[in-house]
Amino acid sequence: MLGLVASMPRYFFHVHDGVEQIDEEGTVFHDIVIARAEALKLAGDIIKDAGIRSDLGEDWCITVTDDVGLILFRMDFVVAETAATGRRPPVAARPIQGEGGPPTRSFR
After folding, report:
1. Tally: H helices and E strands in the chain
2. pLDDT by residue (tens digit) across 24-40?
């Protein structure tokens, strides 16, 4: 095995918030655990920046792919208004009522 060096994988972080922000370069990390941590940091930076700009959509996501475009994982974020704001949440964020029991936590 001398001379064989395993290359570290490259991960691509794509942001979808009404405008596609495609990561063309990617970033090399040791493994997917580190890539997930970096995706969470990216999400935190986006949320912090959006709080200043107030232009982030009601729902958005980050998809992380490998070098051939296979989606390895996806992080979804939804901003849902409550009754206190006087606005109804989007249909996708409203809980579905179960039959004959308490409300379920499933979402459409």
Report:
1. 1, 5
2. 999 999 999 999 999 99
- DSSP code, position 107: B
* Token pair recorded at residue 59: 């729902």
- Work out the number of other CB atoms within 10 angstroms of the CB of residue 84: 6
Which tokens sit at 100?
Answer: 């004959």
Amino acid, single-letter form, for residue 14: H
Rounded-to-integer distance, Cα 73 and Cα 96, Å: 25
Q: Could you list the beta-strand ranges (E) of the chain.
A: 10-16, 20-21, 27-28, 59-65, 71-78
Torsion of CA 104, 77, 24, 68, to 10 degrees: -10
**Given a cut of 90, is residue 48 above it in pLDDT?**
no
14 forms bridges with which residues in the sheet? 63
pLDDT digits (tens, 9 = 90+) for 4-21: 556 899 999 999 988 889
